[in-house]
Design goal:
It is a single chain. The chain is α+β, with helices and mostly antiparallel strands. The chain folds into 3 domains: 9-134, Acyl-CoA dehydrogenase/oxidase, N-terminal domain (Butyryl-Coa Dehydrogenase, subunit A, domain 1), CATH 1.10.540; 153-235, Beta Barrel (Butyryl-CoA Dehydrogenase, subunit A, domain 2); 241-415, Butyryl-CoA Dehydrogenase, subunit A, domain 3 (Up-down Bundle). The protein contains 14 helices and 8 strands. The protein has helices at residues 26-31, 33-42, 44-50, 55-61, 82-95, 97-102, 104-115, 120-130, 241-276, 293-329, 334-362, 379-389, 394-407, 411-415, and strands at 135-138, 153-157, 160-167, 178-184, 190-196, 202-204, 221-228, 233-235. Strands 1-4-5-8 form a 4-stranded mixed sheet, with helices on one face. The longest helix has 37 residues, at 293-329. It is globular and about 80 Å long.
Length: 419
């Protein structure tokens, strides 16, 4: 794949303020979700086969209300819950997991507004969120001795700052209006910069070569002497620890919700293929694939896996809502609630990951060699799930959970690590 700079369509077609007649209530936004997902799903297979980045879909999403669902009512938003947001992720991922995944940083930004409505960034950018603007993030770097190490620099020069470095795993940045970057200041302390994505010197590269989630634009960003103004700089050292931990859990839950959506898609593909395309095997007692007892069993097992995954994720989302409410209220039990949601999420990742991989494999048991045809692109489900799971190693999750229950060690949870 040739590496090229992605030209951001927004620079030619800026997002305009949304008409006041568009649905803004939580109920109206969620009611429109099935139609939006159906539209996204129509070209999902073709987009992946032809590697067409879904810029148009993200232009449309800016007008749906889904991208500002979690903004609190007192800030002019619909006041949606974490559970609402998670269902949006699952539904969008069932249509196209790339689209849902690429919104991870944006939904994280909006969650920060929801639980810290009085923070400077919340007051500064909530109006932009309500206009449909999207926020991305690029914090990780590759080719460093160990993960989470930074080489990107933010250096003060006169009245401004200059940002220089290289980022990777910039999921969704190509579709965003603003993107945040982590960097080291002159003292070697971690800091952050949030700049418009079309700022001179910001070059988003089309170099993501992962086997899955191919259209998330998760590749690199070159930062070549990018000018950053003082109001765009934020410290990473003075964050509320409960908010930081909550947002780390939310970021992980986002990926689990993407997997849940993929499994929903696996189930719908299994049913559709068995009903409309598959032939019965030559040893089958049935004249049709849908009448074959073994095919029926496979579809039933996939259906059960999808249901179990949805139930597990709904439980974690409810615990996240409880944690979010406790943080906003400054409740004395917020440590307990934040910890409970983190533990539930970590357990969910282990179970969901195993169920999902198995469901993606069993899809091929609904048919013979024809099920591997490229036109169906069924292998994308396994590839996408496997790629997402590499963000959150299950062995590491199991060890961290076990260490907590056996020894009371909660370092990873307290640090709010996103992995």
């Amino acid at each position: 794949m040739s590496v090229q700079t992605l030209h951001h369509p927004r620079s030619e077609e800026p997002t305009s303020d949304l008409p006041g007649s568009l649905p803004r209530t939580r109920e109206a936004i969620l009611a429109d979700l099935p139609r939006i997902a159906e539209d996204i799903a129509k070209g999902a297979v073709a987009r992946e086969l032809n590697r067409e980045l879904p810029f148009e879909i993200f232009r449309s999403l800016r007008q749906t209300g889904l991208t500002w669902l979690r903004v609190p009512k007192h800030l002019g938003g619909p006041g949606g819950t974490v559970a609402d947001q998670v269902e949006v992720i699952c539904t969008l991922a069932a249509a196209d997991s790339n689209v849902a995944h690429a919104l991870r940083s944006h939904f994280g930004f909006v969650e920060a507004i929801a639980i810290s409505p009085d923070a400077p960034n919340s007051k500064k950018y909530v109006s932009e969120v309500l206009k449909g603007k999207l926020f991305g993030g690029a914090h990780m770097e590759i080719n460093t001795p160990r993960p989470n190490m930074l080489r990107t620099k933010l250096v003060k020069q006169g009245d401004i700052y200059v940002l220089t470095g290289k980022k990777y795993y910039a999921t969704g940045a190509a579709y965003s209006d603003y993107t945040s970057f982590s960097a080291l200041d002159e003292q070697g302390e971690m800091t952050g910069a949030l700049v418009p994505i079309d700022r001179e010197g910001v070059h988003i590269l089309d170099d993501w070569d992962g086997m899955g989630q191919r259209l998330t634009a998760s590749g690199g960003v070159d930062l070549d002497d990018v000018q950053v103004f003082p109001h765009e700089v934020s410290s990473r050292q003075d964050r509320d620890p409960f908010a930081r931990r909550h947002n780390a859990t939310r970021a992980q839950l986002h990926l689990v919700a993407c997997i849940a959506g993929i499994v929903r898609n696996v189930f719908s593909d299994a049913v559709n293929y068995a009903q409309k395309h598959a032939r019965s095997a030559k040893h089958s007692a049935s004249e049709t694939a849908r009448g074959d007892h073994f095919v029926q069993q496979v579809v039933g097992e996939i259906a059960a896996a999808s249901h179990a995954i949805d139930v597990i994720i709904a439980d974690v989302a409810n615990k996240q809502d409880a944690a979010a409410l406790s943080i906003v209220a400054g409740a004395p039990d917020r440590d307990e609630r934040v910890m409970a949601s983190a533990l539930a999420n970590s357990k969910a990742q282990i179970v969901v990951g195993k169920l999902a991989i198995r469901a993606a494999e069993r899809l091929f048991d609904t048919g013979g060699g024809s099920a591997t045809s490229r036109k169906y692109d069924f292998d994308r489900h396994w590839r996408n799930i496997r790629t997402i799971l590499n963000h959150n190693p299950l062995l590491l999750k199991g060890r961290v959970i076990g260490d907590y229950y056996l020894n009371g060690v909660r370092t990873d949870f307290d640090e709010g690590r996103v992995f």
